[in-house]
Structure formats: structure tokens, C-alpha cells
Write a structure and sequence with these properties.
With 142 residues, the chain is of the alpha+beta class. Helix content is 26%, strand content 42%. This is Pyridoxamine 5'-phosphate oxidase family protein.
Length: 142
């Protein structure tokens, strides 16, 4: 699979999967939790409350490991992605991020109303597409 085909397949998986896991490091141990994600091209966004362990974890070590995909669906297959990304914590939720995250549902509206929202932006550094019938898994740097 060439680079453009890889990016296209990756974007399709990101576009069609909003729930995945995000692992951070706490006390030199991995901590994983389910998160809602939204992508803008090949950049991921999620949100949480400001006073959570995951925010503390990312402030200490900004790298996160994310799994998205792997639902048994006839029309979408079982492909999923393993992502290593570097997270940042924007001080303000800009209108474009606000619009993207608003699509994720009522919890976002509740958090936003409580003025306790922290957006998390994840810039993908490396990614592997797994269970792709057309290609063997390979790690690709973006």
C-alpha cells in the first residue's frame, strides 16, 4: 500500500469510529480508558474534565496510545488502527474544535455548561493499520 492509499484508509477508519481507548502513563504504568474521538483529517480530538488523571498524565508525559476501530460490520470490515500520538491541551476550545466536539453528544454539552471542559488534541506520530485484508501491518510515521 503506498502512502496516499495508507492515509486514505486511515482517514476512513478515523471517520467511521468515534469510540476507542486512550492509554497514558502514570507512575511508569499504562492506564487505559475509553474515550470519544473526533478527527479533523489526521488529527484527533477528545475532551474530558480538567481535573482528571488523564490530564495529569498528559502534562507529565504527552504521549498517548490510541486504538480505534475493529467493529464487526459487513460494510466496514474489522480493520483498526494503533496510534502513537503527542497530545496537547489547548487553553481554550476554539470554535472549530467546539463544533467538532459538539457532534459527540450530550456529555460534551454538559461538560461545556459546567465550564470544566478540557480539549485534548492528538497529533499522530506513528500509526499501524491492523486486520487490513489488503496489506500486512506496518508502522508508518506521519
Amino acid at each position: 500500500m503506498n502512502r496516499e492509499e495508507f492515509k486514505s484508509t486511515l482517514k476512513e477508519i478515523l471517520d467511521n469510529n468515534n469510540i476507542g481507548t486512550m492509554a497514558t502513563i502514570r507512575d511508569n504504568k499504562p492506564m487505559s480508558r475509553y474515550m470519544y474521538f473526533y478527527n479533523d483529517g489526521l488529527t484527533l480530538y477528545t475532551y474530558t474534565r480538567k481535573d482528571t488523571y488523564k490530564i495529569d498524565d498528559l502534562e507529565e508525559n504527552p504521549y498517548a496510545h490510541i486504538l480505534l476501530g475493529y467493529e464487526e460490520r459487513v460494510d466496514k470490515g474489522e480493520s483498526y488502527v494503533e496510534i502513537l500520538g503527542k497530545a496537547s491541551l489547548p487553553e481554550e476550545v476554539t470554535p472549530d474544535v467546539d463544533e467538532m466536539l459538539a457532534k459527540l453528544g450530550n456529555l460534551y454539552q454538559k461538560l461545556k455548561g459546567e465550564d470544566d471542559l478540557q480539549a485534548i488534541k492528538i497529533d499522530i506520530e506513528t500509526v499501524r493499520i491492523m486486520n487490513d485484508e489488503d496489506a500486512e501491518p506496518e508502522t508508518v510515521e506521519l
